[in-house]
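Below is how a single chain appears once it has passed through the pipeline. First comes the sequence as given, then the structure the pipeline wrote out for it. We keep one example in the README because the format questions we get most often are answered faster by looking than by reading.
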Amino acid sequence: MTQQRITVIKGDGIGPDIVDAALLILEKVGCDFAYDFADAGLVALENHGELLPQQTLDLIEKNKVTLKGPLTTPVGEGFTSINVSLRKKFQMYANVRPVLSFKGTKARYEDIDIVTVRENTEGMYSGLGQVVSDDGTEAEAKSIITRQGAERIITFAYELARREGRKKVTAVHKANILKSTSGLFLKVAREIADKYPDIESTEMIVDNACMQLVMNPHQFDVIVTTNLFGDILSDLCAGLVGGLGMAPGANIGKDCAIFEAVHGSAPDIAGKNLANPTSVILASVQMLEYLKMADKADKIRNALKEVIESGDRTTRDLGGQHGTTDFTQAVLDRL
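Resulting structure:
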């Protein structure tokens, strides 16, 4: 059997610390991966003169599976979001953001288990038609939704629901106002829902969805939506379980996938052994599930759950007084 090679992008700020933690845990659980390390973000800009070097793109293309820490895109004109560039380059059309409650996080809710499936390449994040008038008084951008794009992301959501034994898919839209773009998305969602009679299908306007997630989040199971709405809603969902430090993300295409921590690079605590590595550890769990290694994924998730629930060597954001290495060791001890 050929050894699985993984491209690893440690990223900026706290990225190296938390990715190293995830790699130790993957080794402990018995994953015999070979790793190819690559640069992106500010580290790449410093080492190679560009945010996303060609050698990094080549490794992502070659290995098909990537584990990635947080990246920093410099603020200002001339710098395109690295994450958006990667999604478009490798046509990773599905962004999958699960949130799961862990006792001990002091989150506002218990028993949350929601997956947001976000279209990843179209809509307002496509970067099309961005124009600012010469006098700086007017700006515009173009949002494009295609039938093909809507069909594949909505189908992805239903297939995920069926595969994971989930019962309900909610299509979130703004078709009452955005009658063309959101209207097409909603029309396609209704068509595809008819093909999955075993799964409950609902639809909800995005502003109401935000309110309902705050008031009664347990009514949601799988949410499928467009790019901009998905970006906002998935962060809202992370807030239900303790914040972005508890939320992983996967970008999945036809034959390429990147699994990542979804929070920022937190340069203010970089190198101080303070960061909570949970997000990227859970991203590695998503990666194992993608590679059909569910038994190892479950072992890591359960060990992580025990550490957070017990409060054993947890980080400050989880109410503890320990750092990244102590927290990681607590997970390793349970494995």
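The mean pLDDT is 95.

See the next section for the split statistics.
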